[in-house]
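Thread: quick sanity check before group meeting

JM: Hey all, I'm pulling together slides for Thursday and realized we never actually wrote out the predicted structure for the chain we discussed last week. Dropping the sequence here so it's in one place. If anyone has concerns about the input, flag it before I start.
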Amino acid sequence: MREGSKKTPITASNTFSILGTYEGEALDTNITNKNGLDITDAVIDAVLESEDYKEGITNGWFIGYLGHPENPDCMDFERGCIVMTEMHRESNGKVYAKFNLVDTPVGQIVKKFQDAGVNFGISIRGAGDII
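JM (edit): ok, ran it. Output follows.
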């Protein structure tokens, strides 16, 4: 790359790789979640207002996996099947999110089970530090 040139991210506008779009409750700030975390309204608001969140949503960095990886910083793309496209908190403390189900081998497995009547849940545990 030439000095002074700007790096342009690689993007895709192909929707053929999306098997479906799903939305629903992803978190409730009023309860301790199954991962033992108490994620408060203030924490969610700070996340939603952060440049990291905005950049992550814009660039599709919030990838979800089938199963529950041990490491919250997991980047095991072979198990990836969803990408979060939006998240917001309601005044009642419930956090809702939208996800695209991606046409990956694991995404195909999820789709087949959904077609057979299985309902999957979403576990948001996040990664990083809370100060």
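AS: nice. The longest helix spans residues 105-115. The mean pLDDT is 82.
JM: adding both to the slides.
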